């Protein structure tokens, strides 16, 4: 695999195969290729989703993200309860292995089980080809952790990712390679188009209106048409249809967002009434305000999304556990981010010098935000997890709004009053509620907090001292060591969520 003239960069994208299941197999001294294992919480009944299945289960036709009751009868398998904190620890251990070979400046962690590596300077250093270097990293992970990996090699980040997702699956050594020429030969006609990084069912449905079902079709469309249909997203489609991605890992690391926000959300364990949902909202605001205080930040805007429950037909779908099944949700936190996020990720600027966050987390965030609305209700697509019905926010109805505060604050009292008012304004009190998301926008350092003639500075400081005391107690004794009385109501979810990581018990 000789490098061609003009190809200045070589990137690796390494994925840990069926990571959660592989960790559980390795801990039992088993191999994911031969051990039938699924990662699922048995306490949640047969309708719960399997977070991962071993490679051996995949060979038997069991798909990732299936429900337990969908596993065919006659297959003997181990059910491992999710241990999210342990998976994070193993992921950190594997990251440490990569650091023995490459600098942290040349690694971008994409997810708990996937990362990009700029291998360009290391091929000459280690006197290895890109394939040999990838194999060395993969073997080191397997030898020390018992976790198998696959890899994609490309001349840019996008090609490395596509090589991992598509090409690597069809070669014996699990290492795929793409440059721009091979991309046109092997990927242009690939279907379904949803297998391509950054193209979800919503974008695929909109492309289908123009008779486009693969990247060759995208490349043939007029640029002006794509911009009219997709706006700034057209830029990414145009580049990626040609196998082009100018962003580098160095640029991703150097990127500083112009504005930041924090957001959290949860799918409720059952249908909640208007009153019960307000209890959960209060818990969520309390937790997020403590995040603001811990970060020494203030916000100048809030947002609220409330997703209503499905209709009566869905309420009749009761699984073996006795809980209602909602077909478009796994019942877990889908997007909880307790950190500072670039606004540009969800709303990038329409410019050729686009935000560098696009090449990594930006695509995933944009697709999560845009595809459901772009897809027609009940649209069906085929991908890694088999056929799936896409039901966007329109399917069951929702209420959504954002407001500028006219001030910058991290006061729970002030922010809760604003959320209460917004909840009263937009939420239908007669409809059952199944999902709540909140967000705080325009984050700035605490010294920019608004103080005017009507501000009770002493009361504000007292509230802040209380918040800092709560954080100190929680840091030392755990999140459930000190709670507001709201969290002891029957409908409250905070105590249970505090014991979870990624929506599952740690």
Based on CA atoms alone, the radius of gyration comes out at: 24 Å
The mean pLDDT is 83
Total E-strand runs: 18
Which range does the strand content fall in? 15-25%
Main pleated sheet: 6 strands, antiparallel
- Give the termini separation: 43 Å
Structural class: alpha+beta
| CATH structural class of the largest domain | Alpha Beta
The coarse silhouette is globular
Structurally, how many domains make up the residues? 3
Number of helices: 19
CATH superfamily annotation of the largest domain: DNA polymerase, Y-family, little finger domain
Helix content: 25-40%
Low-confidence stretches: 1-6, 312-395
CATH architecture of the largest domain: 2-Layer Sandwich
What name is given to the CATH topology of the largest domain? Dna Ligase, domain 1
